[in-house]
């Protein structure tokens, strides 16, 4: 029987996190090692990993922002500095990244991580909304977010630096 654990990420998880990042995202979309180390150091409660039989198979990272109706595309830039935008007493959770090793997808792990993060943050912080970006091409991710109550609020033209410069969908959920 598999032993599954969802826990806060630690700096010692960085090699496994980067393995998942490079397995999940192509160059131009993947974020760098120091960004993840800063996320762990700045908001460890908002950075979870999923272990199965002591192997890290997935992660989800987040930040807390001040809520704003005005969407500034720069807020969502890849590799942005969490220390400049994270506000522990903010009211909006930004889900910055989620990744599952390809060979372990379609097992519900992404949904488990997603729900665990939302439950944990909702209990411990005064969050009234959540926001994220997703590529128009990532249909399974869009489906996961819609299933969890997120709605499209706008699009960012050619946001992702992939082969077709795909648009980013900004999605929000009010709690």
Summarize the structure.
The chain is of the alpha+beta class and 175 residues long. It has helices at residues 14-24, 33-42, 82-85, 109-124, 139-147, and strands at residues 4-8, 47-52, 55-65, 92-100, 129-135, 151-156, 168-174. It has one domain: 3-Layer(aba) Sandwich (Aminopeptidase), CATH 3.40.630.
Q: Tell me the CATH topology.
A: Aminopeptidase
Specify the helix fraction band: 25-40%
> Strand-residue fraction?
25-35%
Number of helices: 5
What order do the helices and strands follow? EHHEEHEHEHEE
Q: What Rg, in angstroms, do the CA atoms define?
A: 15 Å
Number of domains: 1
Describe the strand arrangement of the main beta sheet, using strand numbers: 1-2-3-4-5-7-6
Query: Uncertain runs with pLDDT below 50, 5 residues or more?
Result: none
Which CATH class?
Answer: Alpha Beta
- Report, as a whole number of angstroms, the end-to-end distance: 36 Å
Keywords: Acyltransferase, Transferase
Protein name: Ribosomal-protein-alanine N-acetyltransferase
Enzyme class: transferase
InterPro entries: Acyl_CoA_acyltransferase (IPR016181), GNAT_dom (IPR000182), SNAT-like (IPR051635)
């Amino acid at each position: 029987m598999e032993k599954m654990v969802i826990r806060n990420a630690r700096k010692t998880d960085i090699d496994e996190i980067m393995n998942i990042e490079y397995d999940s995202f192509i160059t131009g979309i993947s974020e760098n090692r120091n960004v993840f180390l800063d996320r762990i150091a700045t908001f460890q409660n908002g950075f979870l990993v999923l272990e199965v039989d002591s192997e890290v198979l997935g992660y989800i990272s987040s930040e807390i922002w001040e809520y704003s109706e005005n969407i500034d595309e720069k807020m969502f830039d890849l590799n942005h500095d969490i220390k400049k935008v994270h506000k522990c007493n903010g009211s909006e959770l930004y889900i910055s990244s989620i990744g599952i090793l390809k060979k372990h997808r379609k097992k519900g792990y992404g949904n488990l991580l997603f729900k665990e993060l939302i439950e944990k943050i909702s209990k411990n912080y005064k969050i009234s909304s959540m926001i994220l970006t997703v590529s128009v091409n990532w249909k399974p991710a869009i489906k996961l977010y819609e299933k969890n109550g997120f709605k499209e609020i706008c699009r960012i033209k050619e946001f992702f630096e992939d082969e077709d410069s795909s648009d980013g969908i900004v999605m929000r959920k009010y709690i």
